[in-house]
Write a structure and sequence with these properties.
By secondary structure, this protein is an all-alpha fold. Helices cover 74% and strands 0% of the residues. Helix 2 packs antiparallel against helix 3, helix 2 packs across helix 4 and helix 3 crosses helix 4.
């Protein structure tokens, strides 16, 4: 129970930072006039869903962090790799 309480307190710190990092990394797709392209928003939404899916899996923390880093560093490619090769099981 103590482990769950410590995780919940850290989660409130990490979620806003993760959202900010995702917005600045995977949504930097601009049109010619400088506005954000629609597919940038779509890619951001798909990356966020994939990251939630990664952390719901019953994997070790190392495997979760590796997939999260791949998705974060390569927003489109990492998303494709994750859904093709992650070997996901049932989320618990």
């Amino acid at each position: 129970m103590n482990k769950l309480a410590s995780l919940s307190t850290r989660l409130f710190l990490y979620v806003p930072m993760l959202a900010l990092l995702l917005i600045t990394s995977s949504c930097a797709r601009f049109n010619a006039d400088g506005s954000l392209a629609i597919w940038g928003y779509v890619l951001l939404a798909l990356d966020v869903l994939a990251l939630f899916d990664v952390f719901r899996q019953p994997w070790s923390i190392g495997k979760k962090l590796l997939w999260a880093a791949i998705i974060f560093v390569f927003p489109l490619g990492g998303l494709i790799l994750y859904y093709l090769f992650a070997g996901r099981g049932n989320a618990s």
